[in-house]
Recover the amino acids of this structure.
C-alpha cells in the first residue's frame, strides 16, 4: 500500500530522504525539512497505515509505505541519499538488515537516545558502516506519535552528531547544514561518550521526575488538596514524567549501566541533603543549595548567538580519515558553536577545513587544543553580510 503527493520544486542538500518511524521525532523532522525545503522528496515509513495517510495529507511526506512495502525498497534504490532511523531501537536492526540487503550507499543516521547498541548493530549489519553517523536530537514532548509532532520541535534544541575516524569527511558538513537549517544547534560528541552524557542530563532527570510524581501521588490519597497545590515549579519539574512508559522503559534498559551509575550518584547527593537535615547542619545545607544555585544561574537563559560577531577558523589539514570528527569534537568540547562548516579541497591529499563560529564558547581554549593536536589554525572575524549562511 502506498500513498503519494505531488512533488514541489525547492530542494535541500538531500534530495530524497526516507524517515523510518513516523512518531513524534520522525514526523517532526520530516515536517521541519518539508517546511524549510518543500522540494525534498520525503518517504514516510511506519507500521501504522493511518499515520502514513496523515503524513501525506499534512504535506510532511510525499509518499508513505509500510516497512515491507516494495515502495520502500524502490525509494531507497532509486537515489535515496539519506535514511533517518527514528523507530524504536528494538525495531532498528530489522531496518538495518533491509538497507544492507539493498546495498544502500547513502548516509544513515538515527534519532535514538542511546548509541552503544545501535552503533554496534550498524557496524555488524551494514555493508558500508562508515556511512552511519549516529544522531540524537535533544527535543521531545509529553505527547506521542504524529499527533504530537510539529515542525518547530527542534528550534533552539541541541542535536548531537557522533562522527568517528571512519566517517567520510563530507558527511558531517552535509548533516550539519541540514540540521542547522531546521533551527537546531549541532554538538559533536564521540559515540562512546554519548550514553554517559545523556544519562546525566536526560535519563536520570526523567527517573527523578517520575519519582516526584510517585511521591506526590502517594500522599494525594490522604490529602485531596495536594494535587491542587502542584502547580508552577512542580509541574515544570515533572512534565517529562508524562512521556511514553514503553519508550522510556526501552531507553532505560538500553542505557542501563550509565543510568544505574547516575542514579547511584543521585542517591548519594540526596543523601547529603538528608544528612545535613538529620545532623542539624545548616551550614552544610546552605552550601549544597548555594552550589546548585550558582551552577543553575550559570546556564545560559537561551541560545541567542549574535549574527554580527562571527569568527572564521581555517585549518589546513591532510585529507585523512577522522580529521573532521576530531576537529568538530574539540570545537564542541570548548563550548563553541559551529554556524557552518565547509571543506575546500586543495589537492587530492590536502584540504582546508573552514568553520564559522558564533560568539559562544572559549576560542582561546579551542585554539590551544587544536594547536596541541597538531593543527595549524588561523582566525579572522566575519560580519553577517560576509557570511551567506546567516539570515
Amino acid at each position: 500500500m502506498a500513498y503519494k503527493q505531488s512533488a514541489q520544486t525547492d530542494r535541500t542538500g538531500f534530495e530524497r530522504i526516507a524517515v523510518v518511524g513516523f512518531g513524534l521525532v520522525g514526523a517532526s523532522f520530516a515536517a521541519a525539512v518539508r517546511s524549510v525545503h518543500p522540494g525534498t522528496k520525503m518517504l514516510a515509513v511506519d507500521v501504522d497505515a493511518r499515520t502514513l495517510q496523515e503524513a501525506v495529507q499534512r504535506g510532511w511526506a510525499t509518499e508513505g509505505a509500510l516497512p515491507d512495502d516494495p515502495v520502500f525498497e524502490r525509494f531507497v534504490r532509486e537515489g535515496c541519499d539519506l535514511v533517518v532511523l527514528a523507530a524504536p531501537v528494538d525495531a532498528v536492526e530489522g531496518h538495518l538488515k533491509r538497507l544492507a540487503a539493498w546495498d544502500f550507499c547513502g548516509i544513515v543516521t538515527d534519532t535514538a537516545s542511546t548509541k552503544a547498541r545501535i552503533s554496534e548493530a550498524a557496524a555488524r549489519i551494514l555493508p558500508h558502516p562508515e556511512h552511519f553517523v549516529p544522531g540524537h536530537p535533544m527535543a521531545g514532548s509529553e505527547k506521542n506519535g504524529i499527533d504530537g509532532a510539529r515542525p518547530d520541535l527542534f528550534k533552539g534544541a541541541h542535536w548531537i552528531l557522533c562522527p568517528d575516524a571512519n566517517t567520510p569527511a563530507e558527511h558531517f558538513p552535509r548533516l550539519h547544514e541540514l540540521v542547522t537549517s531546521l533551527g537546531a544547534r549541532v554538538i559533536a560528541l564521540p559515540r562512546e561518550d554519548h550514553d554517559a552524557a545523556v544519562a546525566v542530563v536526560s535519563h536520570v532527570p526523567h527517573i527523578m521526575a517520575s519519582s516526584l510524581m510517585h511521591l506526590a501521588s502517594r500522599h494525594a490519597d490522604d490529602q485531596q488538596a495536594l494535587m491542587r497545590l502542584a502547580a508552577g515549579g512542580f509541574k515544570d519539574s515533572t512534565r517529562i514524567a508524562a512521556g511514553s512508559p514503553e519508550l522510556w522503559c526501552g531507553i532505560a534498559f538500553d542505557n542501563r549501566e550509565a543510568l544505574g551509575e547516575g542514579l547511584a550518584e543521585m542517591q548519594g547527593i540526596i543523601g547529603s541533603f538528608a544528612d545535613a537535615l538529620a545532623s542539624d547542619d545548616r551550614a552544610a545545607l546552605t552550601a549544597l543549595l548555594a552550589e546548585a544555585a550558582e551552577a543553575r544561574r550559570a546556564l545560559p537563559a537561551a541560545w541567542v548567538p549574535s549574527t554580527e560577531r562571527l569568527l572564521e577558523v581555517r585549518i589546513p589539514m591532510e585529507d585523512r580519515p577522522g580529521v573532521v570528527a576530531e576537529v568538530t569534537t574539540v570545537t564542541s568540547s570548548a563550548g563553541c558553536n559551529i554556524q557552518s562548516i565547509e571543506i575546500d579541497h586543495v589537492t587530492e591529499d590536502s584540504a582546508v577545513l573552514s568553520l564559522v563560529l558564533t560568539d559562544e564558547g572559549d576560542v582561546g581554549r579551542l585554539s590551544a587544543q587544536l594547536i596541541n593536536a597538531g593543527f595549524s589554525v588561523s582566525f579572522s572575524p566575519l560580519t553577517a553580510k560576509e557570511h551567506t549562511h546567516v539570515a
Observations:
- The CA atoms of residues 11 and 40 lie 5 Å apart.
